[in-house]
Write a structure and sequence with these properties.
Blueprint lengths: L4 H5 L23 H16 L15 H11 L3 E7 L9 E6 L3 H17 L6 E3 L6 E5 L3 E6 L1 H7 L1 H6 L6 E3 L1
Parallel strand pairs: 2-5
Antiparallel strand pairs: 1-2, 1-6, 3-4, 4-5
């Protein structure tokens, strides 16, 4: 191995053998194990003392229907109606109907709602119509959510079909 001409002109320290392969000196940058164990113990003690507060999500600990209504409100959905189906249908416990102002708004409201449900731990919902944006149907199992454009909602008028038996069980938000 021939050294490069630049390296050949540099003076070498007396202890370096020019024929040996260069090995850098190893400097220890690691923290001793005892210090790490002390740090771990301090963190565990702080957690036990509850001096370390846990940040919770805004949707944590809320029921699915509360998450749905709050998400629709945050997304500026219009004419949100919650119909209580408990005891009237085996399909779901609640049906929520809302409107968006345009195709894009309907899709954005549905997408926001799906993310909020997932963050709150209410599982993956089944979705239909998200790409079209006229009528998006979201089925969480216990709640069926319909998000319409206003013209489509007027045409189908499904809240009238489900609200006929008890007007007092329908809540307008």
């Amino acid at each position: 191995m021939n050294p490069s001409p630049i390296l050949a002109t540099l003076p070498l320290p007396a202890t370096v053998d020019p024929t040996a392969s260069p090995k850098p000196e190893r400097t220890t940058y690691l923290t001793p194990v005892a210090e790490l164990q002390d740090d771990i113990a301090a963190v565990e003690t702080a957690a036990d003392d509850r001096s370390v507060s846990r940040v919770s999500s805004p949707t944590e600990g809320r029921t699915a229907i509360e998450v749905v209504i709050a998400s629709l409100d945050d997304s500026k959905a219009e004419e949100v109606v919650d119909i209580n189906l408990q005891g009237r249908s085996a399909l779901a416990d609640h049906m929520v109907i809302a409107s968006g102002r345009s195709h894009r708004h309907v899709s954005a409201v549905a997408d926001h709602l799906l993310r909020d449900l997932k963050e709150a731990g209410h599982g993956n919902a089944k979705v239909e119509g998200l790409q079209n944006g006229d009528w998006v149907l979201i089925d969480t199992g216990d709640i069926i959510i319909h998000i319409f454009r206003p013209e489509v909602r007027t045409f189908y008028n499904i809240e009238k079909m489900w609200s006929v038996s008890d007007a007092k069980e329908t809540t307008v938000h």
